[in-house]
């Protein structure tokens, strides 16, 4: 894997890509050898590209646009960030965890927090806190053992969402054995 951080989401206010760019700028001040990969499109795309230019980060930030199969990015990056302002259960986070990535999410919504337990299966930062996200990025970038431990724990956690377990639950909900139909 390369020394890179991945943001994989729509470029909209909800997903907080602006927080990612600002946090990465702070992160780059002390750890300049890392890059930021941004995969997704949306209403904030142009303003984010402009902000990256203003911050002088053009050589460290790559905008990939919409990617039909993010597996290549998920395999090559070391850290996944999703500091959403509100969120359901994000597929991108599930994919990152399944690819054994160390993940950072915000505490804004219960969806990601069902998957990421702070310091156990990833890191959790306060919503809209650029400094906290930058610090979490730095923590993981500087400590490969911790990054690996969180990535391995994330993989184990996401296994609970495997098809065999999900189908069993789905069938139990749709076809309860003890149900009585009322006519």
Task: Explain how this protein is built.
A 6-stranded parallel beta sheet has the order 3-2-1-4-5-6, with helices on both faces. Strand 4 (79-82), helix 4 and strand 5 (102-106) form a beta-alpha-beta unit. The protein contains 8 helices and 6 strands, in the order E-H-E-H-E-H-E-H-E-H-E-H-H-H. It has 183 residues and is of the alpha/beta class. Helix 1 (17-30) crosses helix 6.
Structure, briefly:
By secondary structure, the protein is of the alpha/beta class. It has eight helices and six strands, in the order βαβαβαβαβαβααα.
Give me the secondary-structure topology.
Blueprint: E1 4-8, H1 17-30, E2 35-39, H2 45-54, E3 61-65, H3 71-76, E4 79-82, H4 91-98, E5 102-106, H5 110-115, E6 123-125, H6 130-142, H7 144-158, H8 163-174
Determine the mean pLDDT: 93
Radius of gyration: 18 Å
Kindly report how far apart the N and C termini lie.
59 Å
Order of helices and strands: EHEHEHEHEHEHHH
Q: How do the strands of the widest beta sheet line up side by side?
A: 3-2-1-4-5-6
Question: Which stretches of 5+ consecutive residues score pLDDT under 50?
Answer: none
Strand content bin: 5-15%
Helix-strand category: alpha/beta
Helix content: 40-55%
Q: Tally the helices: what do you get?
A: 8
- Largest sheet composition: 6 strands, parallel
């Amino acid at each position: 894997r390369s020394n890179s951080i991945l943001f994989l989401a729509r470029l909209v206010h909800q997903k907080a890509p602006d927080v990612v760019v600002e946090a990465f700028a702070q992160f780059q001040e002390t750890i300049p050898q890392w890059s930021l990969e941004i995969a997704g499109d949306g209403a904030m795309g142009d303003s984010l590209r402009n902000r990256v230019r203003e911050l002088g980060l053009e050589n460290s930030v790559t905008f990939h646009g919409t990617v039909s199969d993010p597996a290549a990015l998920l395999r090559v990056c070391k850290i996944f960030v999703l500091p959403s302002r509100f969120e359901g259960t994000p597929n991108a986070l599930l994919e990152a965890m399944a690819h054994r990535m160390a993940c950072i999410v915000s505490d804004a919504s219960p969806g990601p927090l069902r998957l990421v337990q702070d310091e156990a299966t990833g890191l959790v930062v306060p919503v809209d806190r650029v400094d906290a996200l930058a610090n979490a990025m730095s923590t993981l970038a500087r400590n490969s053992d911790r990054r690996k431990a969180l990535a391995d724990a994330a993989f184990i956690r996401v296994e609970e969402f495997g098809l065999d377990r999900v189908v069993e639950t789905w069938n139990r909900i749709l076809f309860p054995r003890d149900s009585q139909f009322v006519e």
